[in-house]
Design a protein that fits this description.
The chain is an alpha+beta fold. It contains six helices and eleven strands.
Length: about 260
Amino acid sequence: WTLKTQNKFSEIIENSEFDDKLKRSIGYPTVKIDGNKVYLKFSIKLHSKIEGDSDLKHVVLAVINKDTKTIEIRQHTVPIAYNNQERIYEKNIYNVKSWLKLHLDAYIIELDLQAITRYMKANKEPEVKITAVSLRRHGMEADLDSASNSELTLPILDELRNKIAQEEIFHNNPTGIEIKEMLEGFMVDIEDNSDLPAAKIFWPQKDIKIHMFHGEVSSATAILKFMGKLKDKESMDYVAEYIINSETELSRSFED
């Protein structure tokens, strides 16, 4: 958050074109400053595919954290009737990033959510539970969802782990133990040497569940989708802070 950015930001606030009128595309936002965070609210007019329906106000919120120097872009789910564009969320993210670069001289680098997710899975469980929904390996992608439980969708690799843990044949004789070790090594190899385009992340103590897409929606854009009913803004703030802190820890681990 440089002085140049602060000056640019002041220009935006004072600009005579500044308003919150509904537009078909990203325009000037409304601004709210709350401590170390700056909220830029972009309001877009969406037209329904159903004749006679009124237009819908769709909000795209850019949250700038001046302390961590991060930008988070949030938006609500668009009802099917108003989703007239292919990859509407990705386009909105791209347009907001372009606006930030043009008007605030923002230099934006995408977080590697795949690497952060792997770090969290290796170092943060059971505080957070992470399960792969799909894996990409040798140019091919596999969907791992096979069943559901009360917490979140359980993918087939974890289902296989549970099966191995429960069956006595894998624990009571040398051959079974050898097969168990071979299967466990095979599963670890698959997870460690495959891309992770989609995963589900669950914080049990907070009852927060999100779906992470990376490489499925766009090779350059990572998207987090909250599952179920979102209780409050604090849930989004918690997830953002958790991921940013994990990214900081991961970066420091390479420095040691």
